[in-house]
Amino acid sequence: MIALACDHGALELKEAIKAHLEQKGLACKDFGTYSKDSCDYPDFGAAAARAVASGECEKGIVCCTTGIGISIAANKIKGVRCALLHDHMSARLTRQHNDANMMALGAAVTPPMMALELVDIFLSTAFEGGRHQRRVDKLTALEG
Q1: I want to staple 60 with a disulfide (CB 3.0 to 4.6 A). Which of 6, 35, 86, 102 is the partner?
Q2: Taking the complete model, does pTM exceed 0.85, yes or no?
Q3: Which of these is catalytic: 8, 20, 86, 97?
Q4: CA distance 110 to 104
């Protein structure tokens, strides 16, 4: 199950991602928002992140206008490693090296087709482990 969330500035992108995932047969849980009415991204980003941290959802995808604010909100939840993605390489390496369990996108800075490509790369790339596990363990230790 993939957790999804956005604010009003990224509603269309979240809906496109949701349709894309469903077309691929992947289950999603949509934590909102559900309209273009002004709202606060921390509310929705944190809800999706809590679902990932608890294990309710395997991974999460969050979006806002730039992707910055909602990624910061998601990363405040213990157990979440959310990466703001802009290109193929970052989507691949954040999974291979950082074992990121959430990704963030900016609706105003990432074209829709690129966003869907990044989603596919992120979801299909495995963590390499090995020397990278030591680094992920150190990130986890920083959570206190």
Answers
A1: 102
A2: yes
A3: 97
A4: 11
Q: pLDDT for 7-21, tens place per residue?
A: 999 999 999 999 999
User: Under a CB-based contact definition with an 8 Å cutoff, are residues 91 and 97 in contact?
Assistant: no
63 is catalytic: no
Domain count, the chain: 1
Whole-angstrom distance, CA of residue 13 vs CA of residue 73: 18
| Contact status, residue 53 vs residue 79, Cβ threshold 8 Å | yes
What are the residues whose beta carbons fall under 8 Å from the beta carbon of 139, sequence distance 6 or more? 81, 98
Q: At 80, which CATH number?
A: 3.40.1400.10
pLDDT at 124: 98
Answer whether 2's CB lies under 8 Å from 21's CB. Answer: yes
pLDDT confidence of 103, banded at 50, 70, 90?
A: very high
Catalytic residue among 64, 82, 88, 132: 64
